[in-house]
Amino acid sequence: MGRALFRSHEREDSDEDVSVVVLGKDDPLAYPMLVGHLAAAGPGLLVDPYLQLDELHMVVVSTGLTRILVSGKPRHKRVVASMRAYLDSASLPRRVEARASTALHDRVLIADAEEQVLTLGTSLNGVGKVTTVLSPMPEKAREVLRADYAQLWNDAELVGPPTRTMQEDEAEREDGPAAK
Q1: CATH of domain 18-162
Q2: Residue 14 region by backbone torsions, left for phi larger than 0, else alpha for psi between -120 and 50, else beta
Q3: Is 41 exposed, middle or buried (0-12, 13-18, 19+ CB in 10 A)?
Q4: What ranges in 42-165 are assigned the alpha helix state H?
Q5: pLDDT tens, position by position, 88-139
Q6: Domain boundaries along the sequence of the chain
Q7: What are the b/e assignments for 119-145, b being 16+ CB within 10 Å?
Q8: Cβ(95)–Cβ(61) below 8 Å
Q9: CA 50 – CA 71 distance, rounded (Å)
Q10: pTM of the full structure
Q11: Comparing C-alpha atoms, which of 149, 151, 154, 120 is closest to residue 137?
């Protein structure tokens, strides 16, 4: 992937406006600012290998993100199990699907409806504890990242919620979220 981005950069200089957001260490507004950016993205994919249960809860109640991709490595097993139990709860306000992959490293936000792809320099649990940046990706990088993370998502193991039937999905669209 790195070579593809490098070749893309060599071929064409970009005049795109790239607005980087700095989230400062010990800044009490850093985490709320990040949540605002996640919410503004609407439906999409958040990739954070080290996402914790409390951050998953924040995503469910404060954003419109629909998919979460976390680490499937053995040391993250306990967190994944807690996420599985959480996502299986009938009391959640909306459905968010989580999957686990052992092939993750970077933190990425990929909005479905927009051309927006952002990278985050640290996991959500580090925002406000260390200085980090939320960086939009230029067009060529967005294309590569969208394709790579679509493949990672397809190959990842389902964490939750349990797979539903097409009839359950149709009923939810017609009636809103229903109890399991």
Answers
A1: 3.30.870.10
A2: beta
A3: buried
A4: 53-62, 77-87, 139-155
A5: 999 999 999 999 999 999 999 999 987 899 999 999 999 999 999 999 999 9
A6: 18-162
A7: bbbbbbebbbeebbebbbbbebbbbbb
A8: no
A9: 6
A10: 0.81
A11: 120
